[in-house]
Amino acid sequence: MLNKVTLIGAPTDIGAGARGASMGPEALRVANIGPILEGHGLEVKDRGNLSGPANPWLPPTDGYRHLPEVAAWNRLVHDAVYEELSDGRMPILLGGDHCLGLGSISAVARHCRDTGKKLRVLWLDAHADFNTSALTPSGNIHGMPVACLCGFGPRELIEIGGQVPAISPKWVRQIGIRSVDPGEKRFVHEQGLEVFDMRYIDEMGMRHAMELALATLDANTHLHVSFDVDFLDPEIAPGVGTTVPGGPTYREAQLCMEMIADTGRMGSLDVVELNPALDVRNKTAQVAVDLIESLFGKSTLMRPKV
């Protein structure tokens, strides 16, 4: 795992259905994400916030809300993430809503093509985000980034990163899913995404789900983690715009993060959908930073590793 990390703020709720995710980057900074990571021996650079178009808060046009602005923000994110990867640093995208995963993951995929690496994407989320304009009436693009990355979406979005599709569905492992539209569910099955939903986690446990999600990683694999804070149960993380009951507990989430850390393969990270306007005393940001710390080696493990 790289020991040089760069924080990149993307303060926008351009793809979301509720205002407030634009304040997420500052909430994570208030929760001391930089100093805490430095405490684990990492060299942390904070690039500050990207500056993109304002949210016009308009209804959908031809099935998409704010498509030009979403495309502009994702191009900015793509360029910033790609630059840090090219410089041998680990980008940590501080969102912002989850539409920004399109820009960050297209940049990671481009970097993997440059370097001949395989890509594995862990999508930690309550939602599959595999909608298209034909499947969802809202037009909110934060419900579409995985579909766009896999080549299903408007040209302005699927071409970011220079190759269509940017990724294969076979590279994605989704964890914690528990809210999927009926048409979206059919589409997920048609495309063969590997989904470890909450029923699977209830039946088999987080350990088994993560063992399968992380299987076959090797030294030539770049692991990208896209962490939507609504992955967590709202009891521990109320500060999101799209809460869905029945998510992973604090302990399940810690195990998930520690098992990712154990691989030593994480090369990039998104932290998205934190909405301080809906939070209680920055509780959700603090929980998110605590879990991010576990991605970088904080562990509850007392017994020797075998």
UniProtKB/TrEMBL annotation:
Gene3D superfamilies in the cross-refs: Ureohydrolase domain
Domain of life: Bacteria
GO terms under biological process: arginine metabolic process; urea cycle
Pathway: Nitrogen metabolism; urea cycle; L-ornithine and urea from L-arginine: step 1/1
GO molecular function: arginase activity; manganese ion binding
Matches recorded under PROSITE patterns: ARGINASE_1, ARGINASE_2
Listed name of the protein: Arginase
Gene symbol of the encoding locus: rocF
